[in-house]
Amino acid sequence: MRNSIKIFIYICVIGLLSACSLKQETYDTNTYAIDFKATQSFKNSVKTIYVETPNVNKSFNSNSIFYTTKAYSFEEYALNRWIDKPSSMLHNNIAQALETSNIFKNVLKEKSEIKFDYMLKTNVVSLYNSIERNNSFAVLSIKFDLVSNGEVLKTFTYNKKVLSQGNKPYDFVVAVNKAFEEVANDLNLQIYNLIKQILFFIMNC
């Protein structure tokens, strides 16, 4: 009887130790954000623009952060994720970048009773980390359509491949935010010049 009790206690102790060791093997997940700022500011117009929620390639529009080490093959980081879907994060950042640019009197993120003169449509084709030999690159392919009265006035296409400072996921996030910032600044400049040309044409008709 005593031997049975000892064996039972021994089994319980082993079970508790095993449970503790399993808990120690859990790992925290790192979460990152797409967060970039526009640095240019222009002369304000009286126009209003509506920023549509970006259309992100379904393969990349999730909380997973993807990387590739060879052509046609993608994997996701197990312990590193986006804090939100790229489409949502980009929507906020693009709208904020346009507000900072001061090109428009109003920047709308949602349709309302306020009428808008222009609409910006965004399409993200690629968004991933490319690891090539000993280097890591943030790969971004993005297209913008500036629309007015149902017609595309102009399309702006950007294909970026920015070298990361290291091969860790965080280094990729820093590099891809740099790529987005470069895109946002150039896009604002291009839109400003286009709107200026349109207004000049209208005033001289």
Descriptive report:
The structure is a single chain. The protein has 205 residues and is an alpha/beta fold. The chain contains 3 helices and 9 strands; from the N terminus they run αβββββαββββα. Strands 1, 2, 3, 4, 5, 6, 7, 8 and 9 form a 9-stranded mixed β-sheet that branches. A hairpin with a 2-residue loop joins strand 4 (64-70) and strand 5. It is elongated, with a radius of gyration of 25 Å. The protein starts with a helix and ends with a helix.
Overall pLDDT: 89
What distance lies between the first and last C-alpha atoms, to the nearest angstrom? 106 Å
Principal-axis shape: elongated
Sequence of secondary-structure elements: HEEEEEHEEEEH
Largest sheet: 9 strands, mixed
Protein structure class: alpha/beta
Q: Helical content, roughly?
A: 25-40%
Q: Outline the low-pLDDT stretches.
A: 19-24
Count the beta strands: 9
Radius of gyration: 25 Å
Percentage of residues in strands: 25-35%
Count every helix, treating DSSP H or I runs of 4 or more residues as helices.
Answer: 3
Task: Write a brief structural summary.
With 205 residues, the chain is α/β, with parallel strands linked by helices.
Question: Topology, please?
Answer:
Elements: H1 2-24, E1 30-32, E2 48-51, E3 55-56, E4 64-70, E5 73-82, H2 86-101, E6 106-108, E7 118-132, E8 135-148, E9 151-163, H3 169-203
Parallel strand pairs: 1-5, 2-6, 2-7, 3-7, 4-7
Antiparallel strand pairs: 4-5, 7-8, 8-9
